[in-house]
Design a protein that fits this description.
The chain has nine helices and seven strands. Helix content is 47%, strand content 13%. The protein is α/β, with parallel strands linked by helices and 216 residues long. It has a single domain, classed as Rossmann fold (3-Layer(aba) Sandwich), CATH 3.40.50.300. The strands form two sheets. Strands 2-3-1-4-7 form a five-stranded parallel β-sheet, with helices on both faces. A two-stranded antiparallel ribbon has the order 5-6. A hairpin with a 6-residue loop joins β5 and β6. α1 crosses α9 and α2 crosses α3. The protein binds adenosine-5'-diphosphate and adenosine monophosphate.
């Protein structure tokens, strides 16, 4: 039961892979972006505090995020952290949190991909807001445009997946989250994968680096 951080820019495919691994291996996906959107949709205090940052493509303050993740952590399945940590302060807090629960340190997988591909993926992304499941209009289209294959519900485009906000989110990623690659490298907890490959190839490599590919 090892906890794993999926590290990579917005649009790198973290959520797509987390959903696949969650289904096949009983991991629990903790996506801070999905959790924040739920809070925002329910109009909670946290949702109200986070809304402006999310709309502008900026990071929500570390204290709020860390408290939210702390509340989500249960002692059952291994966790796939998707979109968290995003700053060195969050990574340090996660290490301390997991250690205090006797879980040992999480390993990290870095989804390596160029900025132009991230933009292309975010511009064509369609999401099921209830389940967090994502599609891409060209790379991973639903059977019927605008409809989720699984639950038949409508797909929407996120309001931060528009060109100006995408640019801001990519700048924020490069400035604030890229240092985490060195953070996990220093403690020899980082594996890097080529995230430009098609979904099934990325899954294959991911399972291999996680040592989960035996018998599958
Ligand atoms: P993240 O969670 O890292 O922000 P997503 O999993 O939401 O990224 O993927 C972003 C977009 O790219 C989605 O539209 C998704 O369908 C698409 N996508 C994900 N993985 C791949 C891939 N390997 N090849 C092409 N498109 C992909
Ligand atoms: P995501 O769904 O991961 O693309 O996140 C959407 C938005 O939620 C980001 O642009 C941030 O505003 C906010 N967010 C999600 N996760 C974090 C985090 N770990 N730290 C700070 N802000 C976050």
């Amino acid at each position: 039961m090892r906890d794993i951080v999926l590290l990579g820019g917005p649009g790198a495919g973290k959520g797509t892979q987390a959903q696949i691994l969650q289904k096949q291996f009983g991991f629990r996906q903790i996506s801070t972006g999905d959790l924040l959107r739920e809070h925002r949709n329910h109009g909670t205090e946290l949702g109200k505090a986070a809304e402006g940052f999310m709309k502008r493509g900026e990071l929500v303050p570390d204290e709020l995020i860390i408290k939210m993740v702390e509340g989500e952590l249960r002692d059952d399945a291994g966790v796939l952290f998707d979109g968290f940590p995003r700053t060195v302060a969050q990574a340090e807090a996660l290490d301390a949190l997991l250690e205090s629960r006797g879980r040992g340190m999480a390993g990290a997988v870095y989804f390596q991909i160029d900025r132009a591909s991230l933009e292309e993926r975010l511009l064509g992304r369609w999401t099921n807001p209830r389940t967090g499941r994502v599609y891409h209009e060209t790379f991973n289209p639903p059977k019927v445009a605008g409809i989720d294959d699984e639950d038949g519900g409508p797909l929407v485009q996120r309001d931060d997946d528009k060109p100006e906000t995408i640019k801001k989110r990519l700048d924020v990623f490069e400035a604030q989250t890229m240092p985490l690659v060195a953070y996990y490298q220093h403690s020899e907890r980082l594996a890097a994968i080529d995230a430009t490959r098609p979904v099934d190839e990325v899954t294959h490599v991911l399972l291999h680096v996680l040592g989960l590919d035996h018998g599958h």
